Amino acid sequence: MKIADIIDCVDFPCKDIDTNSYILPFAEIETEKIKILMITEAPPNDKADYFYAPGSPFYLQNTIQAFKDAGADVASMQDILNLGVYITTAIKCGKTQYAVSPETMKNCSKLLGQEISLFPNVKVFMLGGDVAIKMMNAIWKQKTGKRVIPAGSTYKIRGQAYHYGDIRVMPSYTPAGKNFLIEKSKRMMVAEDIREALRLAL
After folding, report:
1. Looking at residue 95, which CATH number applies to its domain?
2. Which domain holds residue 197?
3. Strands 167-172 and 162-164
4. Residues in the chain, pLDDT under 50
5. In the prediction, which pLDDT does 194 show?
6. Distances from the Cα of 1 to the Cαs of 32, 72, 101, 134, in angstroms?
């Protein structure tokens, strides 16, 4: 299925986003084969840089490098999908400022909740960045009454075993940002998390 054909924002109520960059994954996805959901923060303002854009989009370049750092032999988004990994963003429009407002996260969590429900065989959620962590915590809290990931800096809380039912939840960093390849510590941690997620999904 194509996620972009199923999930849609109809009224764009958020005030701090760029609606011109609204996008969801438009690749053909065999959802039952996906074992890892990697959720990053937001799409790029230029759709040509999006993970699933044709050619060699910037977000995908960084992500491929992160998988290679983790020891995975990938060269394309299809290679990543073939590993059982689906990548999406927590919010579906590009940001207009550094922070994302609580209202926008609340609005877009409805779409994210619909999206993740399409994947019946997930074993790992890998959450890249504070926005993804906050939004997924809000989704889970609505269902169970409690958050899965505790408050705190990602580098302090990552590496511990969190679970939503039988699904492992891993707080991490997004590999899509412009500074990712030069932030050596974050790059190393993302590689470690991807390596562990792939191991858990076997």
Report:
1. 3.40.470.10
2. 3-201
3. antiparallel
4. none
5. 97
6. 10, 25, 31, 27
104: its two tokens: 């926008």
pTM: 0.95
Mean pLDDT, the chain, rounded, equals 94
Closest by CA to 66, choosing from 199, 201, 195, is: 195
What 3 state SS string does the chain have?
CEHHHHCCCCCCCCCCEEHHHCCCCCCECCHHHCCEEEEECCCCCCHHHCCCCCCCCHHHHHHHHHHHHCCCCCCCHHHHHHCCEEEEECCCCEECCCCCCHHHHHHHHHHHHHHHCCCCCCCEEEEECHHHHHHHHHHHHHHHCCCCCCCCCHHHHCCCCEEECCEEEEEECCCCCCCHHHCHHHHHHHHHHHHHHHHHHC
Q: How many CA atoms lie within 13 A of 44 on its CB side?
A: 17
State how many domains the chain has.
Answer: 1
Chain segment 95-142, per-residue pLDDT in tens: 999 899 999 999 999 999 999 999 999 999 999 999 999 999 999 999
pLDDT value of residue 161: 92
